[in-house]
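Notebook B, p. 112. Complex prediction, attempt 2.
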Amino acid sequence: MRFVDEYRGEAEAARLLAALARDTTRPWTLMELCGGQTHTLIRSGITRMLPAGITLVHGPGCPVCVTSLELIDRALAIARRPEVIFTSFGDMLRVPGSEADLFAVKSAGADVRMVYSPLDAVKLAAKHPDREVVFFAVGFETTAPANAMAVWQASRQDLRNFSILAAHVLVPPAMEAILASPANRVQAFLAAGHVCAIMGYREYEPIAARHRVPIVVTGFEPLDLLQGIHMAVRALEAGRHGVENQYARAVTRDGNAPAQRLLREVFEPCDRKWRGIGEIPASGLRLRPEYAAFDAEQRFAVGHLSAAESPLCFAGEVLQGLRKPPDCPAFGRECTPEHPLGAPMVSSEGACAAYYRYGRSS
Amino acid sequence: MSDERGDPAAGPVCPVPISDYPTVQLAHGGGGRLTQQLIERLFVPSFANPLLAALHDGAVLPVGGERLAFTTDSYVVHPLFFPGGDIGSLAVHGTVNDLAMCGARPLALSCGLILEEGLPMETLARVVASMRDAAAAAGVPIATGDTKVVDRGKGDGIYVNTAGIGVVPPGIAIDPRRAAPGDVVLLSGRIAEHGIAILSVREGLEFESPIRSDSAPLAGLVGVLLDRLGERVHVLRDPTRGGVATTLHEIAAQAGAGIRIEESRLPLAPAVRGACEILGLDPLYVANEGKALAIVAREAADEALALWRDHPLGRDAVAIGEVVTDHPDRVTLRSSIGGLRLVDLLAGEQLPRIC
């Protein structure tokens, strides 16, 4: 396949691994921010091929994993309402809330539907004017523009029965939170290529300067990751910091201006609670007041929800890169993809699921 | 388990009440871990008998001096008609294939129909005509049947159950436990076409070239192998629901051996591969309805591959891996860049990812 096979070649991988081994003189700890990168690393076996000193810790970049329990419980409460058609991307359906997941709510009679695009949810709303169609808008800067577009289109079509439950999160505040933590051990970041395709990488420059860390904008194919790791290690070895761009075939410094305009038109920053991590200031997106009519939280008052996490799950520490999934005593025992205690075991981008599915060696 | 919840003496148990589902979930029918649990925890203990315990695509019963293969399957596919087939042809192919994977020559099929009140007669006639044609092409009569009608809203138009019997010729010994280290794993062609074809019509996904189901009867394809190689064919399976990954996993577990496959050898049509990349689906877990996996003795592998490639349904056949002594019960995959990873069972259906 054009534009994919080029980034999966065995000979080139061997060359990059040899260069990495040659250029590595000390141990280094890198964080890949995006769950899609985590999956490629483990699925292609890269984590087992790296020089011994290179440690990759898996960042909070799985939107399914960091969506707070309160928001999931709110989604479940809204989905249970008889007038509601609740729509979501597939991997959100199995994420456990305090008491159930969306699949369980569906099997109990709720109208929960998997969609492939938020615009499909808008179409559903137009087709079912007698029902309330709610879309669970999760995701980072990558998915936010499409969700903004859905709201914008619903507004243009004057659809009164469409709303979103906004759970959007932003990457830079999470990086700041990780770097500011006293327990931080991350020395360089692989930034998420598709987030930067939208946002560019200008906003990462002050972070790199302030914390004196290398940040390499990195793609998602195996060779992208090997090259991104190599670039980060070379910067660390040379004592350089700053932003470098491995994913130049998709990312520019300024990003996608129309997508950014649409984001600003529909959303505004807000404080957001991250599952397992806690509240991070200005780390989320919510609908602007002009679009409040499309806000499912306002449309469906579900009251105060008290959410309770499993005491066994240390997903928060996994998402901050402090511990690895197999260190968890519940990993593969009480917590498996069919009985997830925490969200990272559910999503195909979740670090725990990636380790469970591809990484267990015995 | 549920009785223990909240009892500290019972040790750490999952506090999420969905751990033991009190109701049936769609994933219980997905072919993954939950389906396996249902079989292992409910059906096998309830129906306990040596025929069932083999857990193959069908049971093989000794009758007089002969061995009969016996199997059944239900078809609830939606939509009823899809590119490359329909519920009728699928119901014939699926059961013919289950018999073929026992090493049997199909003798006869049954046809049980559950119809929803209000189903257009024309739709029923199309499905029946399709079953007739598929059965004729497979050379097997539909010898008995039954019809029930349920109230409107209680069914999905039409559900089909077929059962089949066949005879296993002498000199054939198909059994997952015969997979032995050194054996070669053969795959008869391109994977994931049925699952992606169904998904694309069900979800209204459009690709540049339409993807057709691979639904086909495999008794002939399997027959050419068995006629020439006999006992040197150790295992046969059709990787339907759950795909190649799930089927290999089941074989490895039953054989108590490891299976290692090469990612770069998996045959995939470009359109199917593109669809899987876009949707974030792993083609290894996507359903096939016209493909066979064969595990054969190493010295017979080249001949087996040549036999398949001479057959119209096996032109793209390849050796995808081998049975190994390392990691018993597990399936591993050597990735395109040379890394090694585990190929695990999924809990239920694959979920398309967010981004």
